[in-house]
Amino acid sequence: xxxxxxxxxxxxxxxxxxxxxxxxxxxxxxxxxxxxxxxxxxxxxxxxxxxxxxxxxxxxxxxxxxxxxxxxxxxxxxxxxxxxxxxxxxxxxxxxxxxxxxxxxxxxxxxxxxxxxxxxxxxxxxxxxxxxxxxxxxxxxxxxxxxxxxxxxxxxxxxxxxxxxxxxxxxxxxxxxxxxxxxxxxxxxxxxxxxxxxxxxxxxxxxxxxxxxxxxxxxxxxxxxxxxxxxxxxxxxxxxxxxxxxxxxxxxxxxxxxxxxxxxxxxxxxxxxxxxxxxxxxxxxxxxxxxxxxxxxxxxxxxxxxxxxxxxxxxxxxxxxxxx
Length: 324
Prior knowledge:
- The chain is of the alpha+beta class.
- Helix content is 24%, strand content 31%.
- The chain has helices spanning 2-12, 20-35, 40-49, 149-156, 162-170, 238-252, 260-267; strands spanning 60-65, 70-79, 86-99, 104-114, 123-126, 130-137, 179-186, 194-200, 210-216, 220-224, 288-297, 302-306, 317-320.
- It has a 7-stranded antiparallel β-sheet, with helices on one face.
- A hairpin with a 4-residue loop joins strand 11 (288-297) and strand 12 (302-306).
- The longest helix has 16 residues, at 20-35.
- The protein is globular, with a radius of gyration of 20 Å.
- The N and C termini lie far apart (48 Å).
- It comes from Glossina palpalis gambiensis.
């Protein structure tokens, strides 16, 4: 690494002054690219030198597709160091000509982001009515030369309908290098169907992501944490798996949710010891905390954000979901 840094400084002195800002942008872009390989690089290093991964151990999502209340809600669990270092990105991007792999000309979305990260990897919606949340999943064997999940979920922000969303997640021609779970629905879908989609890294010479699509039809609900529940795959990060099993066990101890209040009660559960659903011990020595809870009300078309336990506190803000 030091040789590379030295080589950069040697080259940098010969670059004309008016070009240096562009070189700096390239280096910055490379750093951001590496930041979004948060599972691929540590998992590879584990095999090289047995370096343990230090990462958050998960988030929980609940979809309630009831006859009365329709809710997509999510807890965001992260390393304590990220507390108060997240923000909303509200963007309206218009290009003169279609851009990128999916020829997107206009995007308008809102997404909760960590500093330095692309939008799309926590909880988000776009002006086409797409609403989704993400649960990190960690496969033991990841794929080089494939698309990191953060870039796939960023592209998802441009999807206009379910078919386009599936196309983005499949990433035909390349496929995912790592995996996640996507909880999603479209507000303008006349069938009122919600989905949980497990995405896993490509297999062998295949050039598209592995997907398992579960429909949550009206009058049903679904919970998902940070463990592959349907795709048969060797999984990594034992602490995250133990936490997921504990949280799912907690959810299954409840009666099926029927109202928004039921969902909020489940996401605010602090039973289960270390691996509880809502993690907060009121001290900064806790490695992982629940830093935010988001509740999409699919009927009211609103998003409520909590930074404290939603069982006992009102949301900091409730925002309208503005559609095209």
